[in-house]
Amino acid sequence: MGISISIESAIVPKWSKGCIRLNNISVECGPQHATNSNSNSNSNSNSNADFAYYSGKIERAEVELSLVRWLDGKGIVKSCVFRGVTGVIDVRHLPYDVPDYNPAAERASHRPGWFDFENFHIEDLSGSILYPDFRPIPFAIHSASMPRLRQRWLFYDLLSAYSAVGTYDNCLFSVKQLRSPSPSPSSSPSSPTLSSPSTLPFADHSTTELLLHNLDISLFNAGMDGPLSWLTAGKVDLDATV
């Protein structure tokens, strides 16, 4: 699988720190980027085209480069900030007759070239997702900040965001970290107890609060059979702590 990227202009504001600013970036990944797009084998072409198509534009991107990380196989980009992102994600061609879920088989192995950002921030993102036999779903991210974003652990890092606010199908969602309160001075580990070894490693542990309000019920029961399909109209609120 490949990708096409075009950049209108680039500015180097802080080259001593490895920073570069890119303006008006166009990104595209479609069926023509399959690994064997020139092959005559339909079966191999279908299997290698089993990925989401997308196209988008980025008004401005500020990236910090690191040669050491690139040599380590983590990608040359250390951290990045995106502003003014628009695009479309197309998953209408993807098959959904998947076999039984096997967690061990689904665990992604690291591949050279996968992105691994130590710091990621994005502002003013908007776009739509095209699902098979369903209406387009608009989505937007007003602001999101993450301490790390890795392609291998993408969903985990998204849930570990410092904060993220946006909309999905015009319904407001938010993700934020809930920190445990700081220990009081009286609970200092000067006098260890039997419970100290098990509690100290989790002193900085954080949980994530996920909120999603007023989501249309059709996003849950479209194309389904059984009692859930009996619901023809309604709204869903999601409040979860992970």
TL;DR?
It is found in: Mitochondrion inner membrane. With 242 residues, the protein is mainly β.
The description of the largest β-sheet is: 10 strands, mixed
Please give the oligomerization state of what you see: single chain
What structural category arises from helix and sheet content? mainly beta
Q: On the 0-100 scale, what is the average pLDDT?
A: 80
Terminal residue distance:
33 Å
Number of helices: 6
Strand order of the largest sheet: 1-2-3-4-6-7-9-10-11-12
Percent strand equals: 35-45%
Count every beta strand, where a strand is a DSSP E run of 2 or more residues: 12
User: What low-confidence regions span 5 or more consecutive residues with pLDDT below 50?
Assistant: 37-45, 190-203
Topology as H/E string?
EEHEHEHEEEEHEEHEHE
Radius of gyration: 22 Å
The backbone outline, from C-alpha atoms, is globular
Measured as a percent range, the helix fraction is 10-25%
